[in-house]
Amino acid sequence: MSSILTNDSATIALMTLQSINTNIAEVQTEISTGRRVAGAEDNAAVWAIAKTMEADVLGYRKVSDSLALGGATLAVARNGAETITDLLTEIKAQVVTAQEENVDRGKIQNTVSSLRDQIAAVVDAAQFNGLNLLNNRDAGAGSGSEQVLGFLQRDPQGVRGVDISIGKQDLSTASSVITASGGTYSAAAVSATLTLTRSATLDASGITVTAGMAFSLSLYGTDGDDSTFVQADLRTTSGATQSRAEMTSAPISYVARDGDGIGDVLSRLSLGYASYAARTGIDSSVLQVQASGSALTLTSQVTTASDTIAVRLDTLDADADNTIGGGLELLADLDVSTAEGAADALATIEGLLDISTNAAAAFGSDQRRLETQASFNASLTDAMTSGIGVLVDADLEESSARLQALQVQQQLAIQALSIANGAPGALLSLFR
Question: Any residues with CB less than 8 A from the CB of 218 and at least 6 apart, and which?
Fold first, then answer.
């Protein structure tokens, strides 16, 4: 049935044209913005995911800045530690020269003192943006390390930053001080005695180390007629047990710094004993002290059932307000002006070289870790950016093809609408 009042064909053609025009507008928006999802109205779920990922990408760019700053700080510290190692190597050469009898030890000592001052200058100068990783003498908890923002971690609780810890390595020459009063003193916290067995282990695994806690290694040898060893050389205390007052001037002592474990403490005490033995002329056959993990291994080739050597580890808690010394504090006592001092220096310098090389290696390892993390973050950021593109970016080749197709459909829809609108005019011929 035909009607001049209702034209269903025109209505259908008009709706088709409107739909085509809407699609054309969408495609034109995709082409002009370059995005398939430009706002929440386009696809709310995809838009929300993309915005979250964009925020993470921006966060990772800030993390990269943090890693770059941490890497620069580590590079300065590592260069400082390597320079100090080179200076210690020069000192070792001077110490070896001082072992000769027909040398001017006074001039050699002047050279050693000059190199020692240079080491102190390097430690003071090795800072970046006010942070010096070559100085760690603060007893505060956590002061022995610095935190660098390494990456972001998203979990059901939300997103949070995860830090990478960088340990400080003290290479200063400041002296430690054990206070004369206060604190909780433990005489012979761990002890062992060398007898006819001639070997013993001083197990300190049960001791908890805190920053500012003082340790000393006391010796008490028994050989009344000095037939096996010189009794006086093997006695660092007046009695069998070291007194609280005697600990303040103990020749073999160490004040722990933040980050030290019992293994670090025993290693330093072992180095202190080597220096003491060289200074007093104790032969390695009489007593050797070697650190191994959380224990000291004691050996002797001369002790008997009656000629014994007792070794005790004494502790003083950090509440005594002891002063932490530098990692190279034994360097301050290096004196090659005498034959005894030269022998002591030779025994000491090797241990100090180990400390500086270990510090440089630790900095290098941490620096490499930050570089690896920065490289991973960059790759992750690229992958996330690509993922965002997959979600929201328009396929311009497809959009271009769709636009051409829609324009053809638009022209056909216009013609169809024109034909539909002209159909009622055919009814006029019926009334002629």
Answer: 188, 236, 237, 241, 242, 246, 250, 252, 311, 312, 314
